[in-house]
């Protein structure tokens, strides 16, 4: 009886905590939507900013954020998946592999500002990329690599070994087995890791603060070596650095709402792609 009572108390405690977290998230989202939807307009989304962002729109910040996300995905996805394939399918279980995995888990917990300083020293100064989309994308890619690698490894391990053994027994090479029998079934899980990484990269401010973000730049980028505005940094400027914070408060909420909608849109696109791959591959 006592054990059942303790179990019920534990279940109810976890339920209360879960509902509390959900309620807090819904409250924050509701507050942003309530205060920000009134300031959203086509002009706000498609026009250039004026007077240091106090007036006008946020088109350069939207375009800059999208450029950073595309660059981050183009670097992190192939490198992360390739590293996961090597660690899972080719590398043994030796001490070196264990140290590599420990380093990956450690990097996943490093604060984002440390990656920002790394990007400043390595990409901006040492490699001479300057404050640019290229430097910012590489920095964000390094930041989300641990998430992509770990999620991809878990997805690869979830594929039954019988698929590998059957392919190898029929005379296929190791790479042919991975390409035709492993990747089609693990790709949905790999995309899930990419979703989590991209969601984190889209909302980060510290890494782009040192490598790409501009305070006020009312034009669109022409190349990967251009500096750009970004939604997280623009929101930070409006909320903390603008001399008349109260006057730009509607724009703060509207910018936050656009950022949330952008992250949600990217996640929904990735989820749709993941579900399509899942429907095509069944075991």
**Kindly, what is the distance between the CA atoms of the first and last residues, rounded to a whole number of angstroms?**
43 Å
Q: Uncertain segments of ≥5 residues (pLDDT<50)?
A: none
Tell me the name of the CATH homologous superfamily.
Answer: MetI-like
Strand proportion, as a percent range, falls in: under 5%
The order of strands across the largest sheet is 1-2
Number of helices: 11
The dominant shape is globular
Order of helices and strands: HHEEHHHHHHHHH
Describe this structure in words.
The chain has 283 residues and is mostly helical. The protein has one domain: MetI-like fold. It has helices at 2-36, 42-46, 59-90, 95-108, 112-126, 133-157, 161-169, 174-202, 206-211, 231-241, 249-280; strands at 49-50, 55-56. The chain has a two-stranded antiparallel sheet with strand order 1-2. A hairpin with a 4-residue loop joins strand 1 (49-50) and strand 2.
What is this structure's SSE topology?
Layout: H1 2-36, H2 42-46, E1 49-50, E2 55-56, H3 59-90, H4 95-108, H5 112-126, H6 133-157, H7 161-169, H8 174-202, H9 206-211, H10 231-241, H11 249-280
Antiparallel strand pairs: 1-2
Helix pairs in contact: 1-11, 3-6, 3-8, 4-6, 5-6, 6-8, 7-8, 8-11, 10-11
Task: List the keywords.
single chain; 283 residues; mainly alpha; MetI-like fold; two-stranded antiparallel ribbon; 2 strands; 75% helix
Summarize the structure.
The chain is an all-alpha fold and 283 residues long.
């Amino acid at each position: 009886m006592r054990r059942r009572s303790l179990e019920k108390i534990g279940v109810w405690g976890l339920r209360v905590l879960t509902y509390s977290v959900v309620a807090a998230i819904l409250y924050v989202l509701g507050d942003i939507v309530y205060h920000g939807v009134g300031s959203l307009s086509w002009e706000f989304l498609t026009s250039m900013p004026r007077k240091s962002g106090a007036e006008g729109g946020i088109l350069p910040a939207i375009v800059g954020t999208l450029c950073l996300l595309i660059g981050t995905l183009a670097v992190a996805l192939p490198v992360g998946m390739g590293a996961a394939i090597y660690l899972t399918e080719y590398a043994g279980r030796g001490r070196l592999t264990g140290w590599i995995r420990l380093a990956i888990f450690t990097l996943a917990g490093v604060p984002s500002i440390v990656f920002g300083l790394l990007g400043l020293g390595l990409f901006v100064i040492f490699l001479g990329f300057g404050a640019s989309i290229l430097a910012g994308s590489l920095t964000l890619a390094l930041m989300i690599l641990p998430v992509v690698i770990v999620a991809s490894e878990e997805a690869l391990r979830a594929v039954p070994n019988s698929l590998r053994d059957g392919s190898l027994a029929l005379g296929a090479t190791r790479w042919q087995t991975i390409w035709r029998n492993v990747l089609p079934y693990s790709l949905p899980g790999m995309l899930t890791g990419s979703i989590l990484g991209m969601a984190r990269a889209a909302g980060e401010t510290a890494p782009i603060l040192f490598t790409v973000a501009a305070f006020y730049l009312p034009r669109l980028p022409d190349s990967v070596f251009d500096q750009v505005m970004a939604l997280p940094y623009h929101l930070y400027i409006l909320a903390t650095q603008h001399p008349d914070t109260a006057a730009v408060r509607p724009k703060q909420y509207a910018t936050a709402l656009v950022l949330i909608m952008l992250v949600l849109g990217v996640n929904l696109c990735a989820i749709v792609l993941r579900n399509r791959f899942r429907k095509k591959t069944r075991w």
